[in-house]
Design a protein that fits this description.
Largest sheet: 9 strands, mixed
Radius of gyration: 17 Å
Structural class: alpha/beta
Number of helices: 8
Strand order of the largest sheet: 1-2-3-5-4-8-9-10-11
Number of domains: 1
CATH superfamily: Alpha/Beta hydrolase fold, catalytic domain
CATH class: Alpha Beta
Number of strands: 11
CATH architecture: 3-Layer(aba) Sandwich
C-alpha cells in the first residue's frame, strides 16, 4: 500500500509514496524512494511513462528492478481512462492520440518534477524521461519540447513519434540529449527496424545515443533494467569527470 508523501518526509525509507497535484486536476504522482535515501546526495530522477493500457502504479514496479539504491523515480498517469486491466485489475490509462494532450502532459510533467525536487534531493541536470511502448513516444515528445530541462530519454520498445508534416526534430533539440533505446529483437508490434531508424536519425543529429537489443518480443526483458541502471550511472560518472576537469581548469 503506497504511503502518503507526508510520511515520506517524516520517515524517508525505501518504498512507494502517493501524492497529488492539487492545482492540476489532482493528477497523481507516484514516487519510489531508494533504500538508504541520503538527503545530502543529489540523485538522478527517472520519470516513468506507462504504455497504452498501463498505469502509473503498474509502471512504477519497474523502479526497484532498475535499482533500489541509485535513483529516485516518479511515475505519471495518462489522461485518458480505459477499462481496468485484465491481468491485475488495476485501472488502465492511455496518453490519447499522438500529441493530443501534450499541453496538459507537459504541465503535469514539469510540476511533478518541481514538486519532487522540493521534497527530495534531485540533481537538476540528471532528470531522465523513460517510456514503455506508447509511453516512449510521450517521453520523446516531452524531451524535444523542453530540451534544456531533461538530460535524456530511455525508450523501451518504443519509437520516435513521426509528425504528419515537417522535420522529425531540429538538430539543436537533440545535440545535448542522451538517449538509450532498449528494444526487443523479435518485436512485431514495433519492429526493430524502427528502433534502428530512430538510432540513425538521433546519431546523425549529434545525440549521444545507444541502441541495445534483447531476445524478446514486445515485452520487457530483465536485462533492460540492468542496462538502464548502468547507462544512468555511466552518465553520472561522465558528468563527474567533466565537473572535475572544469574545476582543475
Amino acid at each position: 500500500m503506497p504511503r502518503t508523501l507526508f510520511s515520506a518526509l517524516m520517515v524517508p525509507s525505501e518504498g512507494v509514496y502517493a501524492s497529488q497535484l492539487p492545482h492540476l486536476q489532482s493528477l497523481p504522482v507516484q514516487t519510489f524512494l531508494p533504500t538508504g535515501y541520503e538527503p545530502n546526495y543529489p540523485y538522478p530522477l527517472i520519470v516513468l511513462f506507462h504504455s497504452h493500457g498501463g498505469s502509473d502504479e503498474q509502471v512504477l514496479r519497474f523502479a526497484p528492478r532498475i535499482s533500489r539504491r541509485n535513483c529516485l523515480y516518479i511515475s505519471l498517469r495518462g489522461p485518458v481512462a480505459l477499462n481496468s486491466r485484465d491481468d491485475d485489475g488495476l485501472p488502465a490509462f492511455s496518453w490519447g492520440e499522438s500529441g493530443e494532450h501534450d499541453e496538459l502532459v507537459a504541465d503535469y510533467l514539469v510540476k511533478s518534477v518541481e514538486k519532487t525536487r522540493r521534497e527530495f534531493h534531485v540533481h537538476s541536470e540528471r532528470v531522465y524521461l523513460a517510456g514503455v511502448a506508447e509511453g516512449a513516444a510521450v517521453a520523446y515528445r516531452m524531451a524535444l519540447r523542453m530540451p534544456k530541462r531533461f538530460a535524456g530519454v530511455i525508450s523501451i520498445n518504443g519509437t520516435l513519434p513521426r509528425p504528419a508534416e515537417g522535420p522529425l526534430f531540429h538538430d539543436d533539440e537533440v545535440k545535448d540529449l542522451r538517449v538509450l533505446i532498449a528494444h526487443g529483437a523479435a518485436n512485431e508490434v514495433v519492429p526493430l527496424e524502427l528502433a534502428r531508424r530512430d538510432f540513425l536519425a538521433l546519431y546523425g543529429a549529434g545525440a549521444d545515443v545507444l541502441l541495445s537489443t534483447y531476445p524478446c518480443t514486445h515485452t520487457v526483458h530483465p536485462n533492460m533494467f540492468r542496462d538502464i541502471n548502468r547507462w544512468v550511472i555511466r552518465n553520472v560518472d561522465e558528468d563527474a569527470c567533466w565537473d572535475a576537469e572544469e574545476e582543475e581548469d
